[in-house]
Amino acid sequence: PAAVSVLASSSKTAEHRLVDHGRIINLDHGDPTMYEKFWQGTGDRATIVIPGWQSTSYFSDPGNLCWFLEPELGRQIVRLHGIVGNAVTDGRHIVVGTGSTQLFLAVLYALCPQNVTDPVSVVSMAPFYSSYPTTTDCLRSGLYRWAGDAASFDGGDGPFVELVTSPNNPDGFLRDPVVNRSGGVLVHDFAYYWPQYTAMTSPPADHDITLFTVSKSTGHAGIRIGWALVKDADVARKMTKFIELNSIGVSKDSQLRAAKIMKVVSDAEEEGSNQGDAPPAAAHSLFEFGFENMEERWRLLREAVKQSGLFSLPDYPAQFCNFNRRSFGNQPAFAWLKCEGEIEDCEGFFREKKILTRSGVHFGDSPKYVRISMLDRDDNYLAFIKRLRSL
Ligand code: PMP
Questions:
Q1: Burial class of residue 356 (count of CB atoms within 10 Å of its CB; 0-12, 13-18, 19+)
Q2: Its quaternary structure (predicted)?
Q3: What pLDDT, in 10s, does the model give residues 48-95?
Q4: Could you give all domains of the chain from N- to C-terminal order, each with its CATH number?
Q5: Mutate to test the pocket of ligand 1, among 215, 247, 251 (most ligand atoms within 8 A of CB)
Q6: Cα(191) to centroid of ligand 1, in Å?
Q7: Cα of 221 to ligand 1 centre, how many Å?
Q8: Ligand 1 center to residue 190 CA distance, Å?
Q9: Is there a contact between 214 and 199 (Cβ–Cβ < 8 Å)?
Q10: How many angstroms separate the CA atoms of 169 and 124, rounded?
């Protein structure tokens, strides 16, 4: 199958082929299945074969602080950040996790002292990623607890952890910390800090603790690999300890797959950049594929929203991207859509139209908002646009 999914050229025919029997269109989860098409187009380049004798040991690199990190994955992480220019890796420890979700818990464990009487407050500015409160409080830890919106946080002078998600899930904006006092530690969640979603500006991000994942970068949510770039060796050691206590490491098979996938992405970018100034073709470059799809999906959505007169969407200022040498505004992985006028329950409104979205209330915001995944397969996304146009 062709790897290039430029909806601009295919949307009309694809739309005619779609028979919409009023089926349920589920855009509630952020499942990144849009990327399946790209990877189908790469043939065997990203395939790996793992013989039966491999991975009998728990250990991957016993001499390394993160002893379960596969060295090849560590190398490919450093290489990819170097090519994209989104984060400094020099002087950082890499801790691998079962998705960045496990790393999030590992960070909380590492940052919150064992001997506290009051749990450390965990905050993020609303609207925040809906998993932060539920993941933080799922075991009712005595070490930390969810304390809500960072913008209105009043935790006295107690310690806190502020999660800075940039671009943000759900609203797609770039963010800086908002709690204006000392005594806190920042954790940057950069799941979406990749050039298909936002411009890579210089210098590369240089934070103390930054979380990344293959889920939204290459689209491999199902292999469950994330990584943290951590400046402080002690924090990295405690995060490693948490993962040891939690799952005695991270699947080697998944790490090897992630390493191979990242290698294929980086190889294509390097080959493309050797061939001149023009962006590499979307058939070869994952980031170009992602960029063109996001651009087209956002164009279709904005058009349908404008035509309906019922909704509004955020506007994102254009910035120059050092990676793909274009100026563009964010094209987020989620649409943060507001029902205008009298519709109070936006999720309920869409549910009646058999479109499943996630209400703003899950993100600490108003039910007039919904979050809609922009990363689903072409047929589902186009069915959504078609139904939106018919409202
Ligand atoms: N952080 C943010 C902001 C996310 O949106 C997601 C995925 N929805 C994650 C973390 C979790 O990613 P992973 O699949 O790596 O656990």
A1: middle
A2: Homodimer.
A3: 999 999 999 999 999 999 999 999 999 999 999 999 999 999 999 999
A4: 7-41+286-390 (3.90.1150.10), 71-267 (3.40.640.10)
A5: 215
A6: 6
A7: 9
A8: 9
A9: no
A10: 11
